[in-house]
Amino acid sequence: MRFVVRFIVGLCIGATLAYLPFRSSCLKGKTTTLVQATPVIEVVFALDTTSSMDGLVAGAKKKIWAIANSLASGTPRPKIKFGLVAYRDLGDDYVTKKFALTEDIDQVYSDLMELRTKGGGDGPEHVNQALSEAINDFKWSKSDNVLKLIFLVGDAEPHNDYPNYPTSTELAKLAKSKNIIINTVRCGSDHDTEKSWKEISSMSGGNYLSIEQDGGMEAVATPFDKKLQELNLRLSETMYGSGSVERRRNYHRKAQRRKQFDAEDAGNSAGYFGKTGLMPEGDLLQAVSKGAVSLTDDNALPADVADLSLHERKAWFSSKKKERKALQKEIRRITKKRDGFVKKNAPKSGFDKNVEKTITEQSKRIGVKY
Predict the structure, then answer these.
(1) What CA–CA distances, in Å, run from 155 to 171, 209, 260?
(2) Considering the domain boundaries, does residue 8 fall inside one?
(3) Residue in 134, 136, 137, 169 with CA at minimum distance from that of residue 153
(4) Does residue 183 contact residue 213 with C-beta atoms inside 8 Å?
(5) How far apart, in whole angstroms, are the C-alpha atoms of residue 113 and residue 297?
(6) pLDDT digits (tens, 9 = 90+) for 175-232
(7) Does 276 share its domain with 320?
């Protein structure tokens, strides 16, 4: 009898352990539901910033919000992080410039706006230093539920002849060993670049894409842009920085830049907020809601809020939070219509659409559907 009991208990334990990763378990008569970790999409753009890339870099500045807004439509909704390595070659003003992976798309937009194209015109570029830094120097997430992507974007092949640097094929193999996929985007029609780009993407498990020299990006006007632009301006009125003086100044610059968005950027940035609820890093309402900043801390508050009494601060916070929640709801409603219009009418080619298509296809690996 004891043997039978032990056998049955053993089967139950084994079945429970096997079932745990997927759903829930019954322990002592209680049902414990296991929550899946939020999927994460991390994208580092390794971007050639020599003079021949002027059109694409200008277009990328315009389209980063469109890409973010599109990726935020996934189910389940992923956490999205972007990073950037701008590269040129030895002898130029710089060889690489790095901008860390972040969820703060306003910061990514600001980083892109600071980029200027210059130099080049002499064939190969220092692609391999950019790839090496993208693979090794960024803080990639370590969980299993993360899609790690590099988009190598340029019009010139790598300098595989530089001593003391790994070759592009060696770097592609290294990326694959770290579960980082390299997708390559050739701009223009250079055959040597095509050959190198195809080799890099193939060895790392990525896709090879070829687009026009200027990126082929087109503005997308919709009947909903004017309203979303208005809502974006109203949203910016709820933006207050928190933390140190320098952090608040940086936040203020982002808020001012947001107020200057044209209709397309305003529509996409508002849509991204409507879906995710995320504001730039250091946002006061978010920081207080998460307990990272206290309304009693005068030094972490902007002056016009710090001048209020604690009772007035609480009332102000409650009012602004309510206002933002209502804006988010309205933005979601209109963005749904705008997304449908864009899906039907937007061009299917160009840098932004190729990036979106590639990421949405590869996101299936972590269970995100579009």
Answers:
(1) 19, 12, 32
(2) no
(3) 134
(4) no
(5) 33
(6) 999 999 999 999 999 999 999 999 999 999 999 999 999 999 999 999 999 999 999 9
(7) yes
